[in-house]
Structure formats: structure tokens, C-alpha cells
Amino acid sequence: MSAKFLKIVNGSKEHCCVPLCSASGRYNSTLSFHCFPKNASLQAKWSHKVRRTGFTVTQHTKVCSRHFKPHEIVISKKGRRALVAGAVPSLFEWNNYSTKERPGVWERRARPPSPEPDVIEPAAAEPVAIPMVMDHDYEASPTVCVDRQHYEQLKQEIDALREQLKTCHLSKFGLQRFASSPEDIRFYTRFPSYTHLMAFWSLIESATSKMIRVTSRARKACDISTVTESPMTRPTKLLPIDELFLFLTYLSTGCTQGELSHRFNIHRTTVGRIIVTWANFLYSLLGSICFWMSPAAVKTCLPPEFDGRYSNTQVIVDCTELRCQTPSSLLLQSEVFSTYKSHCTFKAMVGMSPHGALTFVSTLFEGSMSDKEVFRQSGITSLLTPKMAIMVDKGFLVDDLVPGTVYRPAFVTQRAQMPEEDVLQTQSIARLRVHVERMIRRVKENKLFDTTIPLSITGSINQIFTVACLLSNFQNGPLVANEV
Questions:
Q1: Do 326 and 466 belong to one domain?
Q2: Is 255 exposed, middle or buried (0-12, 13-18, 19+ CB in 10 A)?
Q3: In this structure, how many other beta carbons lie within 10 angstroms of the beta carbon of residue 462?
Q4: Range 403-420 burial, b when 16+ CB lie within 10 A, else e
Q5: Residue 160 burial (CB < 10 Å; 0-12/13-18/19+)?
């Protein structure tokens, strides 16, 4: 629709309010100007069509007739132009003053011709018929004729893919991958060989069916539920023996949970739940076994070095400390700070029989606690009788706590020089006490205890350390080889 502009015909100042429209009543007499309707809904339609925001509709706001369709404008007998009821402007410059709708996709683009069915040419030679099992036989024929050469190629490809799949399974990080390497088994589990590890697994395998698992919901609600270990109800995709391997790897190598999640191809939170689950399980299972030996059993295994003066020795005790992360609370820092290590630590007391077997392990205490107080709170005094003797270091001033004899290196006190008999006694005790240091070294071969214990696992570090101590009896032989 085009506009015809003429010279000034009258002095009318009417003009169109539509954007991009410059029509005015001063320069033409062919256009008429119409006010916005008073009906609110119809006026809203006009404002929406006009696309002009930020203005107020008044009685002088007009829209010219070029924006209406011809049949929407009627002329009275007196020559006045008016709009039919319900008319709405729809012709604008942005739609090229047209109401023609955009053609459809198929109107703008020719449809491609329908493909002709393929004509199968007869083969030169009839192929050999090979019966094949089909999931969906839509035809009546029970056999399918295929090319022998193509069939053999596909068969070879399937065999190659099967071998590749077997290789992928063997390369998976798990216990079976290292079964033939005693060095790797020793590195990842601290067991001397795969045979020893499987012997330990045979002892605990039956108890895994009653394992109490820690789940994310249980840890939040402080509630746990019993889960029966079976392929259908097992909550993780690792087998129980692989979960044990993961826990032993965590102890032995000190890897972070994120690194273990990449190795075993599971989520990091799943690794954390497996570690806590197996720490609690082994803590309860191995803790139910009485490792404390009777005096008769100790006497039977007593090495020749203890014959004579120290033949009544029941246990050799010593303390060890684990470095931990420094807490933010100053009160907690003062409690766990060890002046001996100049760091925040956890302290525990372990005891071993004269021939080298671990027979006692205490809970973890604050690093600021003295050896005597650790001895008092460990509960070992309830196991001792007046006929039992213990061997301790100089820091254990526990003569008033032990009902029997205490073998301890002598002090110089205020004397200028230690007497000869005290020197000989100190040397003899030191030669026998060194085995408890070797036993502690066996426990600390687990690299987890060489690192700084993060505060995030302090809730289960006591169980983890106790399990590591108890496992040392299964992972190693006796310290003293010349036992009777």
C-alpha cells in the first residue's frame, strides 16, 4: 500500500503514531486518522500491534488509514471515513504492508522424489547357504544366504573383539591383575604373597555376608543397615574381595581417595564409604579375637634371649605417634600438640609378646598426653597379674600401676656416673626392647601413617590404626627367629 503526499491542503496537525510512519494531515487529503478505541481489551490489541512502548494513549493519539485493510474502512454518506467495529491495524512497514502469511517449508522447497526400490540383480554364482540364528525372522525362510568370504571376515572381527575385551578385563585395576606378582601383592597389601592373602580371605569370607555397610544416607542420619552381600543386593560394583584389596591399598600406599577412585573406576564418595565400612568391619571382626597370650603360651614361645633374668616377661610396651592435621581451634591444638614431635599428633600404646607377636593395642589419645597417662587409660593393667612382668622405656614410670615387676632402663638421676651394673642392665634391656620398635615399624610400613592424617578421617582413624596393627600378625612372621 503506498501513500500519496500532496501539498499542504489544510492546517490539520494530525499525524500517525506508528513507528517508521511519517503520515500527517497537513500534506495530504487521502488518508484518514483514527483514535484508539475506548474499549480496554481492543485498545491493548492496538498498542500490541503498533509496537510502540513508553508512550501514553490520549485522545490525540491517531493511527492513519494506511495501516488498516480496505474492507475495515467504510465511507459514510457525508464522505467521512470510519472503522468497522473491532478493526485492528495490521499493515506496517516491517511486514511490507501485507497480510500474506509466510509460506510453509514444503512451499518454499520442492520435495525430493521418492526413492525407487533397489533392483537386486541376480548373482553370478549362487552362494553357499549357511544357517544363521536370527532374533527376528520376518520372512518365512529358516535360513539366510550370505557370502562365505564376508561371513569369515565378520567372524574374524568378532574373535578379535572378544580377545580385546578379555585384555580390557585383565588390565582392570584389581586383585586378579597382581595375583602372579608377589612384589606387587607385598606393595599393595603388605601380605607376602597372593597365597597368604587368600588364606586370610578364607578366614573372613563367611563373615562378609553379615557386613554392616555405611551409606551416604546412613552417615547423614547416623543410622546403618545390614546388607547381605550378593550379586543382586551388593551396593557397589566391586566384589567384596576387591573392596578388601582397595582398603589394603589405601593402608599400604597412602593414596588419596580421589586417586583410588580413578584406579578402581568408581566415585570418590564410594571409595570413602568402602574404607569406613571395611575399617569398622575388620575392627569388629579382628577385635573379637583374643590376641592376649596366657603366661603358659608366652613361656612356650619364649626366645632364648629372655631366659634367666627376664623369663617372666609377659609383654613389651611402647608408645607411637601419628602426625595429624593441625585443627583450627586453639583448644584442640593445645590438646593434640606433642612436644616430642613438635607437631599435632595422635598417640597410641602397643604391646608385643617376647617372641614378636602383637598382643595389645590401645585406642588413640591426644599427643600431649604423657606415656604414663596413656598406660593408665589404655586398660592394660586389668590384664596383668603379680606374676607377670612388663618391659618398658624410661618414660613409663608405672611402678605404682603395675602389680608385677617392671623392667626399665636405669636413670642417672643425680649421680655423676651410672654404675656398672646399671649400664649392663640398660644394655640388656635395650637389646630386648628393640623388637617392639621393629614391630611398630612393621605397622608404619603402611604409608598412610607416614602422611599427615587429615581431620576428615579422624572419625575412623582409631579403627584404621587398630586394624593395621592387628593385620601385622597375619602379614608377617615372628620377629625373633630363634624361638623355642
A1: yes
A2: buried
A3: 17
A4: eebebbbbeeeeeeeeee
A5: exposed
Q: How confident is the model over 294-301, as a mean pLDDT?
A: 91
**pLDDT digit string, tens, across residues 306-329:** 888 899 999 999 999 999 999 999
Judgement on whether residues 408 and 329 belong to the same structural domain of the protein: yes
Residue 177 above 80 pLDDT? yes
β-bridge partners, 64: 33
Please state the three-class secondary structure of 29-70 as a single string.
Answer: CCCCEEECCCCHHHHHHHHHHHCCCCCCCCCCCEEEHHHCCH
Statement to judge: residues 329 and 248 lie in one domain: no
* Amino acid letter, residue 207: A
Asked if residue 278 and residue 345 are part of one domain, the reply reads: no
Q: Are the beta carbons of 24 and 15 closer than 8 angstroms?
A: yes
Q: Note the pTM of the prediction, 2 decimals.
A: 0.62
Backbone angles phi, psi at 28, to 5 degrees: -155, 160
The gap from C-alpha 450 to its chain's centroid, in whole angstroms, comes to: 23
In a domain, 318, yes or no: yes
Q: Tens digit of pLDDT for each residue in 337-346?
A: 999 899 999 9
Share of the chain above pLDDT 70, in %: 79
Quick one: 373 and 404 in the same domain? Answer: yes
Mean pLDDT of the chain: 82
CATH number at residue 363: 3.30.420.10
Do residues 70 and 208 share a domain? no
* Residues 343 and 436 reside in one and the same domain: yes
Q: What pLDDT, in 10s, does the model give residues 416-460?
A: 777 888 888 888 888 888 889 999 999 999 999 988 999 889 899
C-beta separation of 185 from 178 below 8 A: yes
Task: Find the distance separating the first CA and the last CA of the chain, reported in whole Å.
Answer: 119
Grid cell for residue 220? 547423614
With cell 599435632, the residue in question is 344
What is the span of the domain harbouring residue 80?
Answer: 1-101
Q: Which of 80, 101, 122 delimits the end of a domain?
A: 101
Q: Does residue 319 sit in the same domain as residue 223?
A: no
The per-residue pLDDT for 42 is 87
User: Residues 290-321, buried b or exposed e (16+ Cβ, 10 A)?
Assistant: ebebeeeebeebbbeebeeebebbbbbbbbbb
DSSP characters over 386-432 = TT-EEE--TT---TTT-SSEEE-PPP-TT-SS--HHHHHHHHHHHHH
pLDDT score, position 374: 94
